[in-house]
Amino acid sequence: MTRDPVPPLPPDAGEVDWIRAAQGGDRGAFARLVERYWDRLYRWLYHLTRDRHSAEDLTQETFARALAALKSFRPGSNFRAWLFRIGHNNFVNQKRTERRTKHPLPDDAPANDATSAESAAEQREVLEVVRRAVDDLPADFRAALMLRVDEEMSFRDIAKALNTTEETARWRVFKARQKLMKVLAPELLPPGAVSEEVKD
Question: Are 156 and 148 in contact (CB under 8 A)?
Fold first, then answer.
């Protein structure tokens, strides 16, 4: 089971212009930023919450807070890491307020992914095994790993997004991979989840 890695979204001249325009009150420019990052932020928050509605709510709240705080964003710094940090803070706050209530997915819950309709039953089973293994990771490890694997963030940007040190970000990704390798056969590991040579 292989898939092409999602290409990273490097800041471009257009994004810098959108940020400046949005800071000046241009809602259309902010809407372009939302369109650029919505799916990526939602997917990451879904990995953290394991709940579609919570992920949607947190994504909306993150962009609302980003809009409110946009004037404090320093042009030239990493907007994606800044945005994901707001999302992570929202997630942490939600966990604090909902600590007593957990909504685990029942074992027989149907998959919600659109791709699951096209997948063979065998592939669905494999994806479910991988999903459960990732879901079983501690939230901090899961958050760091998904930023590394799905978002292809550098450890420096992961540290910014999670409000921690670069060393801690590296350690969390390493431990997440280590835990996955203990429970999954090598061929079931998510692409990018195996050990790598650290280049950044």
Answer: no
